[in-house]
Amino acid sequence: MSVIIGIDPGKTGAICALNDRGVAEFHDIDGSLPGAIHKLSTYMSGDHKEQILGVVIEGVSPMPTDGAHNAFEFGKTVGTLRGACMALGISIIAEPRPADWKKAVGIALNPPKCPKKPGKDATSQEVAEYVAAKKGHVQAKNRYKREMDISSRNRAVEVCPKSAPMLMRAKDTDRAEALLLSRFGFLKLGVVT
Fold first, then answer.
1. Which strands, in side-by-side order, build the sheet including 92-94?
2. Helices 124-159, 173-189: inter-axial angle, 10-degree rounding
């Protein structure tokens, strides 16, 4: 039996150990980085060590709207998780960007387009239209995020039906994405689950 660990980092992220039989085990990070590291070390103890092919950590970066402190904390979390994997002898298979792994596991991406900012010589009418379009764009981005969360949970249930009870709630999106990151690892290594 082979296992790949998927990690969706972040304050509300999750870890998933998915085996090649379609059985997943989850751990919510929920701001408890020591708990997440303990879970990784538990996976590496006993029988599991020989079964783990590696880990896939989502290659993310802070958002422009994050403050400096939040961006630093996020980077610290990702770095700590990477370091823990290395210290435990778990090879890092990949650190794919969200768009790359989502496309690979079959989640359709179609983000809304940002309106073009008017030039310096724009009329007040053009500026007003831009402001209205920008507001509509923010609403569209929020709607797109919710749709992507639902798509991730639905796709995770398709990939691993046994995990459906653990992926029912809206807040289980991080679990679903950790599972799909594990699936990405299997696809990358050419092992189909």
1. 24-28, 14-19, 3-8, 52-57, 92-94
2. 70
Note whether 14 and 29 are within 8 A (CB).
Answer: yes
Per DSSP, helices labelled H in 11-123 are 33-44, 48-51, 68-87, 98-104
CB 181 within 8 A of CB 8: yes
Q: Going from the N-terminus, what domains does the chain have, and what CATH number goes with each?
A: 3-189 (3.30.420.10)
Residue with tokens 């979390």: 77
**Residue whose entry in the numeric block shows the structure tokens 């239209």:** 129
Please state, as a whole number, how many other Cβ atoms lie within 10 Å of the Cβ of residue 47.
7
Does pTM surpass 0.70?
A: yes
Predicted local distance difference test score (pLDDT) of residue 62:
65
Cβ contacts of 29 within 8 Å, gap of 6 or more: 9, 10, 11, 12, 13, 14, 15, 35, 36, 77, 174
| Whether 53 contacts 185, CB under 8 Å | yes
